[in-house]
Each structure stands twice: as C-alpha cells, then as structure tokens.
Amino acid sequence: MKWLLLILLPFLPAAVIAQSVTPSFTNATINSTTNSTQTIAETIRVETYGGTQFSVSGTNVTPAGNLAATTTYTVTDPTLPFSYNNVSLTAGIVETQDITRTISTTSTTQSLSVFSQ
C-alpha cells in the first residue's frame, strides 16, 4: 500500500499560496517629445494642346479665288499701302509648363503621463 501512495503522491493537488505585490513607487511622471520632419519634392507638368488654325488678314489685298490655305493674294491698288498677315498652326502641343515645388512640414508632439498610487 505504501508503494501505491508513493506513486500517486506527485499527482495529488497541493495548496498554492500567492503573495501580493506592492509597487515600490508612490508617483511618477514621464515627459516625451517627438519631432518629425517631412519633405516632399514634386514636379507638375502642364501641357496645352491646340487644334489646327488658319487665318488671313490684310488691307488693300484681294484673294485669287475662294479662301483656302493655298489661295494667292494680290495688291488691289499698288499706289496705296497694303498689309498681309497669314497664320497657319498645326494641331499639337502649344505650350508646356513645368511647375516644381517643395513642401516641408515639421511637427512636434509633447506628452506628459502622471502615475500615482
């Protein structure tokens, strides 16, 4: 019988005794400061497109036929002053702009934690 008690002894429940833990401080404070900086560099490209344009203007000139890109003009009265202006633009990019900018931000975060008992 003793041998059976010795075998079962490790499996028998034992009483557990816990001790209370008491902190060793009465109060404390923590100060924290965090600084962060962010820099963003960007380039924005703006392209302006235009369609085909054709215009003719003038004074003291006469077109030879219907108005078209290939029409020829003659001076109406050679004894008077004359002007002639012909503008012909093909479709495509009219203007390109590059806008470059840098954005910098700085932030500061401060925190205070107070512990007391």
Task: Give structural notes.
The protein has 117 residues and is mainly β. The chain has a domain at 55-99. The chain is 6% helix and 59% strand. It has one helix at residues 2-8; strands spanning 27-50, 53-59, 61-63, 73-75, 83-89, 92-116. A two-stranded antiparallel sheet has the order 1-6. Strands 2-5 form a two-stranded antiparallel sheet. The chain is rod-shaped and about 145 Å long.
Radius of gyration: 46 Å
Strand segment count: 6
Proportion of residues in β-strands: over 45%
What sort of overall outline do the alpha carbons produce when their principal axes are compared?
Answer: rod-shaped
Structural class of the secondary elements? mainly beta
Tally the helices: what do you get?
1
Q: State the end-to-end CA separation.
A: 56 Å
Poorly predicted runs of 5 or more residues:
none
Write down the secondary-structure element order. Answer: HEEEEEE
**Residue-averaged pLDDT:** 85
Helix proportion of residues, in percent? under 10%
Care to give the gist of this entry?
The chain has 1 helix and 6 strands. The protein has 117 residues and is mainly beta.
Please describe the topology of this protein.
Blueprint: H1 2-8, E1 27-50, E2 53-59, E3 61-63, E4 73-75, E5 83-89, E6 92-116
Antiparallel strand pairs: 1-6, 2-5, 3-4
